[in-house]
Each structure stands twice: as structure tokens, then as C-alpha cells.
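Sanity check. The docking grid for NAP depends on where the pocket ends up, so I'm generating a full predicted complex first rather than guessing from homology. Inputs follow.
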Amino acid sequence: MAALPADPPPVALITGCTSGIGLAAAEDLAGKVQRLVLVGRSREKLDQLAGRLAGRGAALEVIVGELGERAAVRAVAEAFLAAHDRLDLLVNNAGVYNQERKLTADGVEETFAVNHLGYFDLTLRLLPALRAAAAARPPARVVNVASDAHKAGTMAWDDLERAGAYAQGWPSYGQSKLANILFTRELARRLGPAPIVAHALHPGFVNTGFARNNGWLGNFIMNISRPFQRSPADAARTISYLAFDPLPAQSSGGYWYKERPSRPTAAAQDPAAAARLWALSLERCGFGSDPLPA
Ligand SMILES: NC(=O)c1ccc[n+]([C@@H]2O[C@H](COP(=O)([O-])OP(=O)(O)OC[C@H]3O[C@@H](n4cnc5c(N)ncnc54)[C@H](OP(=O)(O)O)[C@@H]3O)[C@@H](O)[C@H]2O)c1
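Predicted complex below; grid placement will be based on this.
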């Protein structure tokens, strides 16, 4: 069994770990934390992953959940909180790109439901455990995998689910990744001096399963652009950096690329947009009261 580093975080949770960047990050985290909770929508894939990671150092657990559906996210959080009173590291990574508009079982446009509401809902429901970890071993950390695709995104406030005109996947995907950064910044602002830091990152253009759920075209584009893509392990290095390095522990609300601070667009830094997104996300996720009032 691999030796853990000195003072490894006791408990970490990662989503979207059955493929691509999340899989590479899980491989890395499994050698650096005491207990790693793997969250995904396929029990079979999670069990396979747990088998693959066994012996790297961390104790492994799996929680099955469809992160685009609100009841399922609640159930994931409840399952976690029933077994753990602390969460030292949360990596929100699960994401989807759809060329054609698709709805979840809740009837919500999937990109918005998974990429943004999934991050928001899970993080806020796990807040008590993040707070407990932060009190015992500060800081607790939240790492949100966003994207430079936010640069092509705008918040379509009157039609966030693009029911009016889907116009292929990019506007919706770009919006969801813009939402990741707005959420991270608002989360950091609301946490204030609490010893929980939150950062977002751009992983680069990475050779993963991303967009391959879109028929031959998605596969074709990912295949011909392979020479320009980074490996998942390279991309996962930024997750690891934000999870363990002392430097990002000294700030919060940042946007990072290749282990360096990066500047998101002005739209991603708009505090009014971040507050508006927070309020409507609370409602969409069914929070009766705000667990982190401004
Ligand atoms: N690849 C890139 O170039 C790139 C660039 C910028 C940002 N990103 C971001 O990086 C993150 C990871 O993407 P990736 O490139 O590694 O893609 P990927 O290989 O397709 O992995 C996506 C992961 O998310 C999970 N997932 C998708 N929908 C889900 C749902 N409804 N419920 C639960 N899990 C779900 C997938 O689970 P299954 O295995 O069950 O499908 C998979 O584990 C995403 O947030 C993406 O936006 C990627």
C-alpha cells in the first residue's frame, strides 16, 4: 500500500470521477487523502474505479447519484452526511456538453442542471461537513472545475435553460461554465473569513470523454483536435494544486489555469450577476432558507 503524505486530509469527495479529468484527479487524490468518496451515476463504473484505486492509500467509498436531478443530489448529500461529520475537500467536476437540447428527469435543461445546479446544490448541502472540517483542520477546500468556455458564455437570465432557442450546445455550455465562476466567487465572498476556501479552474482543452455523447460529430471533433489536447493527468494537476498547495489556501474565489491565477471575463466577475445567480439557484434547488446568507 502506498504511503500517504504527512497530514493528509481526512475526507475528500469528488464528482465526475468515472472518466476524463475526474478519473485522473481521483487517481491522484487516492494517494493523498485518508478517505476518498467517489460520486457518480453508474454503480458499475464506480465499483470498477474503486477496484482500480485500491491500494493507493486512501480508504474508498462510493455514492451513486445522478447529479442533474435535485432529489438525487439531496440523497447523495444525505448519504455522505450520514456517514461523515467532516469534509476536508470537495471537488465538483461532473459536467456535460450537449449539442442537442436535453432535459433531465426533473424537466430541466441538462447542462444547466448538471454543470451549475449540481455544483451549487451539492456544495451547499455539504456545508455543515465543510464547516466541521474547517474547524478541525483549516482550511477546508472547494475546487470547482470550470472552463475558459465561460468566455463565450452569457447568462440568459430570461431563458437560462435555452427553451427559446438552443442554438447548439455552446451558449448553454458557456453559460454553465460562467455560472461555475460566478458561484465560486459568490461562495468565497459569503464564506468570508471562514476557513473554507473555494477556487475555480480551467483545465485546458483535454482529451477526455467530453462531448463524445453527441454522435459522430462530437467524436470527430475530439479526435481531430487530439494534437492540441492536454492529457487528463496534466489537467488534474491543477485540481491537486488547489486541493493541497499552501498558496491557494491563502486566498479564495480565484480562477486558475496551469497552477497559476488566471483572469476570468468581466462578466464572470460581476457581483450583481453572482448574487442573482445565487438567489435563483437557491430557489431552483429547493432551499427553504439560505444556508449561507450574505
Ligand atoms: N475536456 C475538456 O477539454 C474540458 C475543458 C474545460 C472544462 N472541462 C470540464 O471538465 C469537467 C470534466 O469533464 P471531462 O472533460 O473529464 O469529461 P468526461 O470525460 O465526459 O467526464 C465527465 C464526468 O462527469 C460525469 N457526469 C456527467 N453527467 C453526469 C450526471 N448527470 N450525473 C453524474 N455524473 C455525471 C461523467 O459520468 P459518466 O462516466 O457516468 O458519464 C464523467 O465522470 C467538466 O466539468 C467539464 O465541463 C473539460
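Relevant for the grid: The mean pLDDT is 94.
Also worth noting: The beta strands are 11-15, 35-40, 59-64, 89-92, 140-145, 196-202, 254-257, 260-261.
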